[in-house]
Amino acid sequence: CCSHQMKGVVAEIWSDGKWKRCGGTSSNVGRKKAYSFKCAIVGTKARIIKHKNNAWITTSELEVFGAARKKEMPCDSSMGISNKNFARGLRAKVSSECYKRNPTNKGYLTDGDNRKRGHGDKKYWHSCRENKPNAEVSFPLKCIREVKIWSRADCCSHQMKGVVAEVWSDGKWKRCGGTSNNVGTKNFYSFRCAMYGTKVRIIKHKNNAWITTSELQVYGAINPHVPIKECT
Questions:
Q1: Contacts by 36-45 with C-beta closer than 8 Å and gap 24+?
Q2: What is residue 68's predicted lDDT score, i.e. its pLDDT?
Q3: N or C: lower Cβ tally within 10 Å for the chain?
Q4: Which residues, 6+ apart, have CB-to-CB distance to 183 below 8 Å?
């Protein structure tokens, strides 16, 4: 019964960092029938929602269909690494922030300054002591070739030891490169890989741990062939 309870629903796609409308608004289709929302948006999540207060939805099945597409172009280690850091200027998402009066904060992670010429400044991100501390940036689909993290300019470079980089690809986190060692102050550790993804994170897979780093950089391939450049 009660097919009217599915009336007034809209579908939205998470694309370019925001929810975008897909199709119209569902009507009362009757029992055992479907309402279809059609659009052409590249995205990583789909949701159905009623933008109303004091409302509910009932539905038997949620289905999401993509477009038929050509075979994906390669993203491999033979491709050169671009010198453009596309993490620069992005807003980093972090698991925590501590010692912000230093004045450490997550904004330094992607401000484009690796502090290589720093003079003992405290412009870096400092996580709190926690389980699996991490920092993450999101972007449109890219062929990821390198992730770099830079150590503090003042001291304590060992706090960046034991970090791994991961790329969000095909719906899961995939490892990129090795595990960082103690590179000394004002220096970087490089993680290299070759995979398409929409997010990169640095993380310590440990409990009761923390990370400090001055800069997070992400580099793509030179002239990559992105699998989906547009969706029409």
A1: 37/10, 37/11, 39/11, 39/13, 40/67, 40/231, 40/232, 41/13, 41/15, 41/231, 42/15, 42/140, 42/141, 42/228, 42/230, 42/231, 43/13, 43/14, 43/15, 44/14, 44/15, 44/198, 45/13, 45/14
A2: 66
A3: C
A4: 151, 157, 160, 189
Which amino acid, residue 158? H
Residue 225, pLDDT above cutoff 70:
no
Q: How many angstroms separate the CA atoms of 203 and 95, rounded? A: 9
Q: Is 229 left (phi over 0), alpha (psi -120 to 50) or beta?
A: alpha
| pLDDT: which is higher, 228 or 114 | 114
How does pLDDT run across 191-206, given as a tens digit for each residue? 999 999 999 999 999 9
CB distance 35 to 65 below 8 Å: no
* Segment holding 150, helix H or strand E: strand 134-150
Other CB atoms closer than 10 Å to residue 32's CB: what's the count? 7
Residues β-bridged to residue 62: none
User: 107: which 2 tokens?
Assistant: 């904004």
How many other CB atoms are there within 10 angstroms of residue 96's CB atom? 16
Structure tokens at 230: 């547009």
CB 75 within 8 A of CB 195: yes
Specify the length of the chain in residues.
Answer: 232
pLDDT score of 226 more than 80: no
